[in-house]
Amino acid sequence: MNMLNEALRLIRVFHDMNAKDLALELDISVAQLSKIETGKASPQIALIEKYARIFQTTPASLMLFAENLDKDKGRGKFKVAIRNTMFKLLKTLEGIADDETGSNVSNKNSHLYKLSSKTKLATLLGCSTQFLHNFRSSSRQYKIFTLPKPNSKERRQVEDPKDFIKDIHRRLKNLLSVIEVPNYLKSGVKRKSHIDNAKTHISANYCVVMDLHGFYRSGRKTFLREMFKTTFKIVDDIAWLLADIATIPQKRKDGIESYFPTGSPFSQIIIFLCYKKTFDDIDAICETHGITFSLYVDDMTFSSPHKIPKSFNKLIEKRIESVKLKLNVNKTSRYGKNNTKIITGCAIKDNNIFVKNKKRQDIIDALQKTDVDAMSIKDIRSTLGKITSQQQIEPDFMDCTKRKLLAKLRALKPQHQ
Description:
- The protein is of the alpha+beta class.
- The protein has 20 helices and twelve strands.
- The strands form four sheets. Strands 3, 6, 7, 8 and 9 form a five-stranded antiparallel beta sheet that branches. A three-stranded antiparallel beta sheet has the order 10-11-12. Strands 1-2 form a two-stranded antiparallel sheet.
């Protein structure tokens, strides 16, 4: 495979972007993108320019990975060495060796294991030792904004790390990615999604869904420090420093001195690791009751061939409250044998998975409100994004409409260039 093709794939993975979303941005099909990433097709210069714009780099930087660079003596050995180093770094950050074998790696294989030096930590995080010595977590290191909650008039706060802190968080995520995670975890794990979470319970007769209230804001830095100390055997001062890097300070009457950012590259995996022991205990409780358990961020789903007693809810609530977390009782849902079950945004009925009726109706209403031929580029992109997202659940969902929107988008683009 051409190094350029593989580099383009690694860059997409590094930016946590799925193939469907990138194909949409590049205005090509997912099949064509797959051919490019597997080396079956070569990207044209115009496409390289689009890549550069999307990932905020330059075409020249991407062309460093071109296969014929080694044959171009005018470039010199120095640029070839830079190219090869960059390529190896991308592969390391992806954790490609673990990803391809599909195996879990022991905590002992992590560079964090038994870490005791700030100098080594600085190397791992790509910063200076002086930066770590002077580091103090602050909300000023984040872009803080709100987004509407799904199916609600309320809004949720998002804390997106600014550039340098985000780079550190991304490196820390990759360092944590070698930890062995249980099968019940469906978030913060490669090739796992909310759809995989729903499919775990696709054949169940009975189901209970519980939601953790204010999960990210209830997280405790002291628990995270203990995780770094016990799981990775990191010395105390380094464990505190890592916990500080991973959280945002706050002052609250209930004694919670910090909270976890929701927009960080490691948000999902770090909050899980913080409470892994609690979730492991819940999984063990489920096993003794013949109940299947899965976790997707703050959504806990329990299913069984048999009716789940209400006393089970109290059992789970008691374990959750033992670590100062709370259940959002208003969001607890119980489903019977003949009910359509709504699990992490998916509808399950008769051993099949579907797009939720509300999501389906929202798109239909938007299309009825504005005909495709009258849509702006912004409206078309928005509708395409919604359809593409739901096609992860139902691959053929509104496929004809999607093709019509893509054709309209291509026709409009020349007018706006």
